[in-house]
Amino acid sequence: MAVQVTESDQIKQFKEFLGTYNKVTENCFMDCVKDFTTRDVKPDESSCSESCLQKYLKMTQRISMRFQEYHIQQNEALAAKAGLLGQPR
Question: For residues 46 and 52, what is the distance between their CA atoms, to the nearest angstrom?
């Protein structure tokens, strides 16, 4: 079954992505960049930024997995309550 995504849905998703991207960028920048006396990014600032982003990505992935697990459990519970599971075919 094909799912149609409207242009307004695409725009909404893109705006949400940009908002998240901007928030992560700002948070990692504020936490990691401390020296404004040079144009160069120092190695510790670079490694801090990379660690910050990796931590965010891992956290997001873990939350997604837990969210999916929760919904699967809820759907199974609803199906069991309705008598749809556990019946022989």
Answer: 10
